Automatic annotation (TrEMBL):
This is G-protein coupled receptors family 1 profile domain-containing protein. InterPro entries: GPCR_Rhodpsn, GPCR_Rhodpsn_7TM. It is found in: Membrane. Belongs to the G-protein coupled receptor 1 family. The lineage of its organism: Eukaryota, Metazoa, Ecdysozoa, Arthropoda, Crustacea. The chain crosses the membrane at residues 12-34, 46-70, 90-109, 130-150.
């Protein structure tokens, strides 16, 4: 039975779902993290800050990288945005991935410390300490990804070959 649908229709639907649910889901997570952070104990607010930071990173990935990737990979099959956007999207994508990874490491270390030292750190880091860790996470991600920005380049291929 022949298909009546365009072969790329599945990609359109999948990217649409990723964009809509990624945007809404991460916005809800950010809002919930900010709202409920104030209503919980100071030590537990660190976890809400870490989770909100993770949601911010994922939100930036969905907003900055998914549309550009969709257009370049599915719609036109080449990079139409120029060299500066190529570098910016590559760098922001790498930073977002590294912030997510480093945030998960920070959450794991916070929980590890709370388990290993239950009397000194019964609920993990405090609010101020969490902000310091988040700043370090972003700084590390921004610095780790500098080579991506420096070495990203737009390469043109001759389609006639």
């Amino acid at each position: 039975m022949p298909s009546r649908y365009h072969p790329l229709a599945l990609f359109w639907v999948l990217f649409g779902f990723i964009f809509v649910f990624g945007t809404l889901g991460n916005l809800i997570a950010i809002i919930a993290g900010v709202k409920y952070r104030k209503e919980c104990s100071p030590n537990m607010s660190a976890m809400f800050l870490f989770l909100s930071n993770l949601a911010v990173s994922d939100f930036l990935m969905v907003i900055l990288c998914v549309p550009a990737t969709f257009v370049s990979q599915v719609v036109v099959q080449h990079w139409p945005f120029g060299h500066a956007a190529c570098v910016a999207v590559s760098y922001s994508q790498a930073v977002s991935v590294f912030v997510s990874a480093y945030s998960l490491v920070a959450i794991s270390l916070d929980r590890y410390m709370a388990i290993i030292y239950p009397l000194r750190l019964p609920s993990g880091l405090g609010r101020h300490q969490a902000w310091v860790v988040i700043a370090i996470v972003w700084l590390m991600a921004l610095l780790t990804c500098v080579p991506v920005a420096v070495h990203s380049d737009l390469i043109y291929y001759d389609k006639s070959e």
